[in-house]
């Protein structure tokens, strides 16, 4: 899939919101500036968030709860995680029971954390567009590709 600018990244997030549910994990991978946060912002807006979602780079975990959004969401940015053991303190395992997890920089932790995640990888193309590839687990079959 090719994304032509921020508007298409936001729109992709909106389409993800239509099929995402509590217990899901959406992993967003790619270099700085690839559009991970734009996809997350589009998803959060489609779930009802009125303002622009801040990047959770410094907070690491930014929670959203009803009535702010339709169901609980944790927007997670693991960029600053230096040791995988630090993730244990974030409570991500517990949150997976009733929240949607949107995880930027998921590669900072090993695959056991994300075995059932919809894994979206963004690559910057020479023409300025973003190429997107998806690793689709069984839990997402029937929901991906998005229409």
From TrEMBL:
<keyword id="KW-0963">Cytoplasm</keyword>
<keyword id="KW-0460">Magnesium</keyword>
<dbReference type="GO" id="GO:0005737">
    <property type="term" value="C:cytoplasm"/>
</dbReference>
<dbReference type="InterPro" id="IPR027417">
    <property type="entry name" value="P-loop_NTPase"/>
</dbReference>
<keyword id="KW-0547">Nucleotide-binding</keyword>
<comment type="similarity">
    <text>Belongs to the TsaE family.</text>
</comment>
<keyword id="KW-0819">tRNA processing</keyword>
<keyword id="KW-0067">ATP-binding</keyword>
<dbReference type="Pfam" id="PF02367">
    <property type="entry name" value="TsaE"/>
</dbReference>
<keyword id="KW-0479">Metal-binding</keyword>
<protein>
    <recommendedName>
        <fullName>tRNA threonylcarbamoyladenosine biosynthesis protein TsaE</fullName>
    </recommendedName>
</protein>
<dbReference type="InterPro" id="IPR003442">
    <property type="entry name" value="T6A_TsaE"/>
</dbReference>
<dbReference type="GO" id="GO:0002949">
    <property type="term" value="P:tRNA threonylcarbamoyladenosine modification"/>
</dbReference>
<dbReference type="GO" id="GO:0005524">
    <property type="term" value="F:ATP binding"/>
</dbReference>
<dbReference type="GO" id="GO:0046872">
    <property type="term" value="F:metal ion binding"/>
</dbReference>
């Amino acid at each position: 899939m090719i994304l032509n600018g921020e508007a298409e990244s936001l729109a992709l997030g909106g389409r993800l919101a239509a099929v995402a549910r509590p217990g899901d994990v959406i992993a967003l991978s790619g270099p700085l500036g690839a559009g991970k946060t734009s996809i997350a912002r589009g998803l959060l807006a489609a779930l009802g968030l009125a303002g622009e979602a801040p990047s959770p780079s410094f907070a690491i975990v930014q929670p959203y709860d009803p009535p702010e959004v339709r169901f609980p969401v944790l927007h997670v940015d693991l960029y600053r995680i230096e040791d995988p053991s630090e993730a244990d303190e974030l409570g991500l395992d517990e949150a997976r029971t009733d929240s949607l997890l949107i995880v930027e920089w998921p590669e900072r932790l090993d695959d056991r954390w994300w075995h059932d995640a919809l894994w979206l990888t963004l690559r910057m193309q020479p023409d300025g567009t973003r190429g997107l590839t998806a690793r689709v687990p069984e839990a997402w079959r029937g929901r991906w590709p998005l229409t």
